[in-house]
Amino acid sequence: MSELNSKSFSGDLDSQGVRVKIIGVGGAGVNAVDRVQMTPHEQVHLAGVNTDAQALDSSPIGEKILIGKSVTRGLSTGGDVEIGQNAAEKDEAKLRQVVDGQDLVFLVAGLGGGTGSGAGPVIARLASEQGALVIAFVTLPFTFEGARHHEVAETALAAMRTHCDAVIPLPNDLLLQQMDESATVLDAFAQADAWIGRGVQSICAMLTQTGLINLDFAMLRKVFQGRGGKTLFGLGRGEGDDFMQEALNDLALCPLLHTPGFAKRADSLLVNIIGGTDLSISHVNQIMTAIAEKFGSKEQIVLGAVVDESFQQSVEICVIGATHLAGYRPERKSRPVMPRVEATPSPEPRQTRRATTDDELFDTSAAGSNRPVHESKLGKRQQTQFEIDQEEFLFVAEDEQRGFFDNTERNIFDGEDLDVPTYLRRGVRITL
Amino acid sequence: MSQSRIIGAVDIGAASVTVLVGDIVNGRSLNIIGKQDATSEGVKKGEIVDFKAVSNSTHAAIMGAEKSAGTQIEAIFLSQTGSHLEGLYNSASVNVSASDNRVSDADMNRVMSEAKNKKLAEDRLYIHHIRNHFLLDGRPTREPLGMQGEKLEVGYWSVLGDERKVRDHIHVINGFGLNVEDIIVSSIASGTVIATDEEKRAGVMVIDLGAGATDWVIYQNGVAARTGVLPVGSDHINNDIALGLRVNRKYAEKLKLSFGKAVLEAEDKQEKVWMVGDQMIGDRRIPKQALVQVIRERVEEIFELVKKQAGELCSAKYLPAGVLLTGGGSQLDQIDVAAEKSLGVPARRGELPSWVHDNLQRPEYCTALGLLHFALSGQTLDDTAQQRRQRGLLRRVTQLFGT
Fold first, then answer.
1. Which CATH number is A15-208's, of 3.30.70.20, 3.40.190.10, 3.40.50.1440, 2.40.160.20?
2. Closest by alpha carbon to A305, among A223, A204, A214, A217?
3. Distance separating alpha carbons of residues B145 and B325, to the nearest angstrom
4. Residue ranges of domains in chain A
5. Residue A240 CA neighbour count, 13 Å, CB half
6. Is the Membrane keyword given for this protein (chain B) (predicted)?
7. DSSP string, A239-300
C-alpha cells in the first residue's frame, strides 16, 4: 500500500507532522517489522530491538539495537522473561534514544518468549515517559505452544497494558482461523504480520492523509487517554459493486472482534474510513450508523474519512476504541509534543491511582491475578432509549456480546482454559 | 393408617431449575405428584455466580411445583455439582478385637469412622462417603459382621466440596423457608436412576451432560466407585458456536438444536443453513460444516477430558455394561457415536426406568428423579439403621451411603 504515502507529504511531516516509529521487539517483533518495511513508509521510521545478535544482523531494518550484551553476550534470552527484562533495563539509555522525540510509537512484539515479553513492557514504559503515544500490537502464542508460553504471555500482556496507551492482542490461534486448511505454521506467522501491517497502515493513513473528514493525532491521543483498559480493534474491507455492505460484513466477521478477551464495546471510539473518490457522505453515514449501533458509545465517537484514489470501488474501515477501567476519570494529557519530563506523569503516580480503584487487580506480579477485570461504564447505560431501539435490529444484549464466561473463574485443566472454544485451542479452522 | 411425607427434589442447573415433588408413603413407595421447571439465572458451570438471581428462579420453581402438587413440601433434597467437587479414595484397617476373631459391630464402627474421619482442609467438607468394599484378611467381603478374621479393612470413595459453595446452595433453599434434608452430587443422583442394578454390578459409567457441567460416575460391583465433574457443558458448546460463527447466543442455541450434531458427515460439507430461518433482515447462511466442526471439537474434548479424569477405570475391561449418556446434552444428534469414539467404550443414550411417567421421560429430569430415589431409600434406611444423627445438615449429608 505504497499509495498511502506520497512524497510531498513526507517533507511536511518531518518538519511539523507527527513523528512515528515502529519498533519491533524480539524475534517475532523484528520479523513483523521487516515485513512492514516492504511497503515503504517515508515518514515512518523503523527500529528493531533484540537480544539475539545473529537474528538482528540478518534483518534489513535500518535502526537495529542489540540489548543485553552484558547479560546474554549477544545470544538470545532462551525464552527467559527475566533475562529479557534485565537486558532492556541494562540498556535503558540506548532504548531511550530510540524512542526519543517520537510522538507515536508502535510496539510490535510476540509475547510468550523472552525478549518480547521481558523487554517489551520496558520499552513501552520508556516511550510513554518520553511523551509518546504507545500502541502495541502483540501476538499471543498458539495453544499448542504449551501452557508455559501462555502464562508468560498473559503476564506480559498485563504488563504491556499498564505501560501502553493501547494494546492490541493478536492471538495466533485466532489468526489461523483466517487461513486455508493447507496453511503452514509459517503462513500463520505471516498472517499475524499481515494484520499488524494493516493495523499500522490504517492508523498511519488516518494521520497522514487528508480527506472528507480529517482525523489528527490529537484525536487519536484522546481516544486512548484512559490507560490500562481493553482496546477494541477491527478492520473490514470491501470491494466490488456492493463494497459498502461487503466492508460492513467483513468488519462484523473480523476475528479480532470475537475473541473472549477482547473489548466489544468501547467508551471511546475512533473510526476511519478509507475510500475512493466515489465514497459519498451517505456511504460514510451508513457506516457510522452501523458502527455506532454495534459498538455503543455515541458520546465519544470520532470519525475520519480519507479519500485515496487507488481505493476506487472499495473501502476499508478501521475501528479503534478503548474501554476505560472502572472508576476511571478522564485525565488531561499533555499535547503531543512536549518536553519529555512533564509530558506524562511518571509511572508511579499512575500506579497508585489505579491501586486505589482496586488493589489486587493490578498486581501484575502475581500470576493468578494478571487479568484485570474491566468494567465498562457502558453497563449502566444499557437501558437507554438508544439501546432499546436496537432490540429489533438484531444486535445482541451486552451480556451476550462479551464472552459468556468472561466474568467467571478461569477453567484451567492441564494448563488450558477450557472456557476458550476448543476449535480455537486446537487450531481447527472454521470457514464461514 | 398410612403416613405420607412430601419431599421436594431440587436440581439447580445452569439452564434450568427443576423441582419434582414426591409423596413418600409409609417410607416405602414414592408417587411423583408435582413438577415445575424454571429458566435458571445466575448459574454458570454448575456454580452460583449470582445468588439473588438463583434464589429468584429457584423459589419460583418451588412455588410452581407446590402449586402443581397441591400441597406443601416438607423437606428438600438438593443436587450439587461444580468444579469444586472432588473425589478421594479413603481406606482404613483395624485388627479384629474379639478373642474368637469374629468381627463385631464395634470393629466395623471403628474401621468405618477411621476411614471417614480423615482430616480435611479448613473450607472443605465431605458430601458423601460411598463404601466400596470391606476386606477381611484381604478377601472382599460384602457383610463381615460375625465372620472370622484378623484384619478388617474398608475402602470409601469420598466426595468432598467447598463448604462455602455447598452452603450457598443450601441458603438458596433456606431462603424459601425450607430445610435441606440431604445433598446428593448430581453424578450419583443421575447414575442411580439411569443405570440398572445389573449394569451397576457388571460395571457401567454414566455421563450426565448438563448445561453448565458434565458429571460422571463409574459403578463397580454395584457401588459408585469413582465420580467426577468436568465444569464444561452445553453452555460451552453454545459459546463456541457464538464465537466461531459470530452469532449471538440465542441463535447459537437455536442452530445447535436444529442442525447440530457431534460427528461431521460427508453430506454436511456442502450444506448451508439459515441462522434465523424466517427471512428477516440480518439473517445469513451458515455452512453446516462450520457449525458441526465447532460442536464436534468441543464434544470430543469433553469426552477426552472425562476419560482423562476417570483414568484406567474408563476402559472396556472395567465397563462391560458400557457408557450411558444422559442429561440435556445427550440429545445432541450422534453424540453416542462421538462418545464411543473418544472413550473407546461402547456408549448409548440411557433410558429412564419404565415407572417414570411419560412426561418425565426426558434426560434433563434424570438428576431430579435420582434425588427422589434417594429420598425414598434414605427413608427406608432411616427406619432400619436408626443411625441418622440429628445434628447440623452438613454432618448428616454423608449418611446415605455410609451405613
1. 3.40.50.1440
2. A214
3. 37
4. 15-208, 228-328+371-397
5. 6
6. yes
7. ESTTHHHHHHHHHHT-GGGG-TTS--S-SEEEEEEEE-TT--HHHHHHHHHHHHHHH--STT
Q: How many residues does chain A have?
A: 432
Q: Please tell me which residue of chain A has the smallest CA distance to B298.
A: A422
If residue B343 lies in a helix (H) or strand (E), which one and from where to where? Answer: helix B335-343
CB contact (8 A) between residue A423 and residue B289 = no
Please name the residue that has the C-alpha cell 494478571: A370
Give the C-alpha separation, A419 to B14, whole Å.
15
Strands B124-136 and B223-230: unpaired
Beta-carbon separation of B289 and A431 below 8 A: yes
Q: Do A411 and B231 touch (CB under 8 A)?
A: yes
Residue B80's contacts (CB-CB under 8 Å, 6 or more residues apart) are: B127, B161, B166, B169, B183, B184, B185, B186
B275, B286 contact by CB (below 8 A): yes
Nearest CB partner across the interface for A422, out of B240, B248, B286: B240
Q: Identify from B230, B232, B246, B285 which residue to disrupt to test chain A contact, counting A C-beta atoms within 10 A and taking the largest count.
A: B246
**ipTM of the complex as predicted:** 0.81
Residues of B in contact with A393 (CB under 8 A): 281-282
Is the CB of residue B149 less than 8 Å from the CB of residue B189?
no
CB-nearest partner of A426 from B230, B246, B297 = B297
Tens-digit pLDDT profile for chain A (432 aa)? 444 444 434 444 444 567 888 888 888 888 888 877 555 555 678 888 888 877 778 877 878 888 877 777 767 677 778 888 888 888 888 888 888 888 888 888 888 888 888 888 888 888 888 888 888 888 888 777 777 788 888 888 888 888 888 888 888 777 666 666 666 767 777 777 777 887 887 777 777 776 667 777 777 777 776 666 677 788 888 887 778 888 887 777 776 776 554 545 666 777 888 888 777 777 787 787 777 777 665 556 777 787 777 777 888 888 887 766 544 444 433 334 334 433 334 444 433 333 333 333 333 333 333 444 444 444 333 333 333 333 333 333 333 334 677 667 777 777 778 888 888 777 777 777
CA distance B358 to B283: 37
CB nearest to A423's CB, from B244, B250, B289: B244
CATH number of the A228-328+371-397 domain: 3.30.1330.20
SS3 A122: helix
Instruction: Please indicate whether, in this complex, the C-beta atoms of A253 and B245 are within 8 angstroms of each other.
Output: no
- The neighbouring-strand residues paired with B23 are B6, B31
Q: What is the distance in angstroms between the Cα of B249 and the nearest Cα belonging to chain A?
A: 6
Domains of chain B: 4-83+163-189+353-402 (3.30.420.40), 86-160 (3.30.1490.110), 230-349 (3.30.420.40)
Is A78 annotated among the ligand-binding residues? no
- Residue found by looking up cell 477450557 in the block: A418
Best CA proximity match to B64, nearest among B38, B89, B98: B38
What residue in A sits closest to B294 (Cα-Cα)?
A423
Residues on chain A touching B280 (C-beta within 8 angstroms):
394
* B186 alpha carbon, distance to own chain's centre: 2
User: CB contact, 8 Å: A412 with chain B?
Assistant: no
Best residue of B40, B54, B251, B297 to probe chain A, by most A CBs closer than 10 Å: B297
Q: Do B325 and B343 contact (CB within 8 A), yes or no?
A: no
